[in-house]
Amino acid sequence: MVGIERKSSAMGMEIGSDSAHVGGLSDDEVLTVARQWVVRALSAATQGDQGHYLNLLKSLKTVQLDDPSSLSALQYRLKALAQSVSYVSEHYHHMLLALVLGMSVWTYGPEVAEALLEFVVNLATANGGCVSQCLDMLVRNFLPPSCGIPAFLDTYSRTGLMGGWLSMDKIRAQQPDQMASKDIVLSQLHSAIRHLADLVPTAPMRLQPIVLQKMPHKTLPKQWNVLYLENMLRLESSGAKYISNQMLPAVVDQLIQIDVEIRWEDILTEEDTGKVYMFHMDIEDETDERPIEDREADENENGDPAGPGIEAKLQYGLMPRSLKGAVPTLDEMADKMDLMMDMTFQHLQTCDKKGLSSQIFDTLAKSFQSTILNTYKSKFTQFLLFYLCSLEPSSCGSRFASLLCDIFTAKSRPSNTRMSSAAYLASFIARAKNLPVDVIWTSLRRLASWCVAYGTHDVGSRPTGNVPDSVLHGVFYSACQAVMYILCFRLKLLADQPDGKRHLRGLHLQQIVDHRLNPLKVCLPSVVEEFLKQASTLQLVDQKHWLASKERIDGNARSMVVGDVRLDMFFPFDPYLLRHSDRFIRPNFIYWSMVEPLDENATSDVEDEGYDSLSEASSYAGSQLDEVQSQAGSYESADVVTPDGERENFRHTLDVQDSENYSYIERHVDTLDEASSFCDDGIVESFKLSFDAMAITPPQPEMMMPAKLPAKVSLNSGFRI
């Protein structure tokens, strides 16, 4: 024992050798000596003697990563600290805590990482005052120091930067080595988090806000956003009590932040822009054209001081430009969103295989109501619910439709929320491929009966003053548009059901379209025209509406604004345009090209109720469009034929027109002006090609078409396939 005590006086230099022994001692004896030395240093600091304590700090800081004996010595010291946490005081040993909790499990190898995590878990268990610090350390290790983000730099990196023997370039150069051990590191890290959560009851409640605050800034490279998301989903899948149901809402919040930065045209690659006819899908007066950095400044000033990613936002704002790097372009934001959505879809798929769909739906439904529903610029995040419902259409799909109906019919909800829910319901019922027919019927009946009841009881009971009908009755118009939109996609299916035509007549569609508030004038023209075309074929509405639709739908109604929502622009489950993660959506999605046309002899099965016969005008627009499409040519969804005959890849969900075909459409603009155009697997299903709405002058016949179309094209009517 005397020999061990003599050895303990020089532990700072002697622990660690290739044989893992000191002076012939076994591993256990070396650990015993190390623990005695650590306890002596901690006790001395408590009594005011800083000598041994400073030696301990120095030994922890001076580590040579390329020296196995140095790493072995660090491992023993950390193990000794893990067995001595009862001697650690926040007051007397704050420098030690800052140093050790500032270490990274990515830096030193799996053996040192195991000892470090053992210390963290033991410290949190023994000292309740250190729980938050320990959780902060674990979350900071979601990313390696080589990411270069200041919030994720470790003690080794900071010491090297201050000492001048490390630079940010050298730190980032460690990325390949650190990422090579990702699976091992994350396995150790999340095992420690689960263990800590089991031992400390308050840990899960403290963990969520830390995870939210440390989210990487949305403009940082996609690999770090994706890696952080992977850690969040690992927490969600951990099975640890109170943790597994906390992370998915945070994932939704992170996705929404990136989602709203993306505009439709930003999904195009540079090589696509000369070949793809792309409509500007954002509402022009709501589009913020300022650089991302300027918008971030406003968010930092006006945002929630404790909201998601707030630490990253503040640190990003304080970072010098040399550390920020180039601000990513918005198509890079789309790629980032694509990868993150793909990873989240995989997580939902795994949860479904484990029988957790119902539990996950409850969590996502809450996030939908609190985050997604009223985020008008959300384009992709809502597809998490769409995909989950496609996995379990009879349960989750039915519950989602019922939830949307409940929100829409709740008078206590704000009008904009009710209108959004109607749009979501219409888009979901129209697009979800495997949705049970009874869910479609139930949703349609609830919407249609509400519209009829509104017409009977609500119209004359409200003071109008100078408030336009479009504002006062916006919820009504949204419901009418939802009914028509659903039937554009589902009328054939419903009519072919047993007693389908009788049930369709029970929706009282004629009463809705004849309403004195004129829903046909306010709702989206392309939806109105296609609905009237199909419904009049089955004699569900008087075909006079179809004949008169072009006169009734004037230019002003095409850009009608109802509150903050434009009825003619909002279909949340329009085609999914992220090409990688689309693999989860496409098999479960109804494109317009998949909708079967009504049987030409459908009217023969309908009882004669005094309707006028259809005129040839009902098919005029479609036939004219077919002519234009046949001239323009048909392209496969996987590639595009360039003018020189070569085939090139492009994003399959976009409508492709080369300059020659675009010129052809321009020459036939009068024909297309009121046409109901539904293109196969393109971005635009129905649109009015209105050059008055574009910020350009239509080219004269003798002028050549530009190789690249204007970036700003306002689309005032139409929905996409």
UniProtKB/TrEMBL annotation:
Report any Pfam family annotated for this entry. Answer: RRN3
Spans annotated as Disordered:
287-311
Give the residue range of the signal peptide.
none
Instruction: Kindly give the InterPro entries that the UniProt entry links to this protein.
Output: RNA_pol_I_trans_ini_fac_RRN3
**Looking at the record's lineage, which domain of life comes first?**
Eukaryota
The residue ranges crossing the membrane are none
Q: Which family does it belong to?
A: Belongs to the RRN3 family.
Protein name listed in UniProt: RNA polymerase I-specific transcription initiation factor RRN3
